[in-house]
Every structure is written in C-alpha cells, then in structure tokens.
Design goal:
The chain has one helix spanning 11-22; strands at residues 8-9, 29-36, 42-49, 56-60, 63-67, 79-85, 88-94, 100-101, 107-109. The chain is mainly beta and 110 residues long. The protein has one domain: Hypothetical Protein Aq_1857, Chain: A (Sandwich), CATH 2.60.300.12. The strands form 2 sheets. It has a 6-stranded mixed beta sheet with strand order 4-5-2-3-9-8, covered by helices on one side. The protein is globular, with a radius of gyration of 14 Å. The termini are close together. The mean pLDDT is 85. Residues 9-105 form the Core domain. Pfam families: Fe-S_biosyn. InterPro entries: ATAP, ATAP_core_dom, FeS_cluster_insertion_CS, HesB-like_dom_sf.
C-alpha cells in the first residue's frame, strides 16, 4: 500500500452528495470508513456525519467527504464514486489495495 496517496472523490460522487444535502435540514459530510467484518475481512461503512478532528477532508462542489485516520491506510489511492444502475444507486469504492472483494462490493480483503 502506498500510504502517500490519499483517496480521490469523483465529480459524480460530489454531485450526488450535493443533491442529498440540498434535501437535508442540515448538510453533512459523507464519511467513508473501513471496519473489520463482512464476508471478506473488512467492510466499508458509508454514512452522513460531521467531520471530526484528525479526519482527512476531501472537498469538491461545496461538499465534504471525510476519512478517519484509522481507515486512511486502507483507502490509499482509492476512488470514491457514485453508481446508478438498474439494481440501485449507491456510493462505491474502487480500491486498488483490495486483493479480493465480495460480490456486493461492500467487503474486501488486503
């Protein structure tokens, strides 16, 4: 893992977050975290939250995506995107550090 490369956020992900926040009473950041668990060893947790001290804050389109210090090494050089398909719409992570992942794309191993 090359820890010097932070994750990146696509314009499409920032646009979708802006749409979500436009409908919210209080706009929030999109928090992307890595936790132990899932069928492959680690899983992504994506939620709306306030930035916290020590978070990496990625900004674009007037929006914020945050990654905590513990999750950052697992997301080095990853791409945070938004996908809209017939089966549904969701934020997705393209993670070059993952050696394998489950079919749903929410868990992975390194």
């Amino acid at each position: 893992m090359d820890l010097s490369l932070p994750p990146r956020v696509t314009p499409r992900a920032f646009e979708r977050l802006a749409e979500i926040n436009a409908a919210a009473d209080a706009p929030k950041a999109l928090r992307v975290a890595v936790e132990g668990g899932g069928c492959s060893g680690f899983q992504y947790n994506i939620d709306l939250d306030e930035p916290a001290e020590g978070d990496l804050i990625l900004e674009g389109d007037g929006q914020k995506v945050v990654v905590d210090e513990v999750s950052l090494p697992f997301l080095s050089n990853a791409v945070i995107d938004f996908s809209e398909e017939l089966i549904g719409a969701r934020f997705v992570i393209e993670n070059p550090n993952a050696t394998s992942s489950c079919g749903c794309g929410t868990s992975f191993s390194i």
